[in-house]
Amino acid sequence: MKKKLSITIEENLLEKIKLYAEERETSVSNLVQEHFETLIKPRPTLPNGMTLVEYMKSLPKFDFPKDFDYKEEYYKAKAKKWGYEDLLCC
Questions:
Q1: What share of the chain is helix, strand, coil (3-state, %, to 5)?
Q2: Are the C-beta atoms of residues 30 and 21 closer than 8 Å to each other?
Q3: pTM greater than 0.70 (yes/no)
Q4: pLDDT tens digit at each of 90 positions of the chain
Q5: Superkingdom, according to UniProt (predicted)?
Q6: Could you list the residue range(s) of the whole structural domain that residue 19 is in?
Q7: 1, 28, 44, 67: which has the fewest C-beta neighbours closer than 10 Å?
């Protein structure tokens, strides 16, 4: 069940929000509801209360050869994903 809510905001902000909603084919009410849902959504937690930096430091490290070509490997992976690996020249 939906309830009515009255809020007070600056007039120029309201006009901008109305245009924004119109461009996205939605209503100001839906924008407000989506924003509130985002605010109260539980945030993902990391193990043992770690910070993101601590968590990233705890991940395994990978040593790549000095001549490892990241760009080439990226394009090979994309070609394989989309079925174009037979078009690769090298």
A1: 60, 0, 40
A2: yes
A3: no
A4: 999 999 999 999 999 999 999 999 999 999 999 999 999 998 888 888 888 899 999 999 888 888 999 898 898 898 888 888 777 665
A5: Bacteria
A6: 1-41
A7: 1
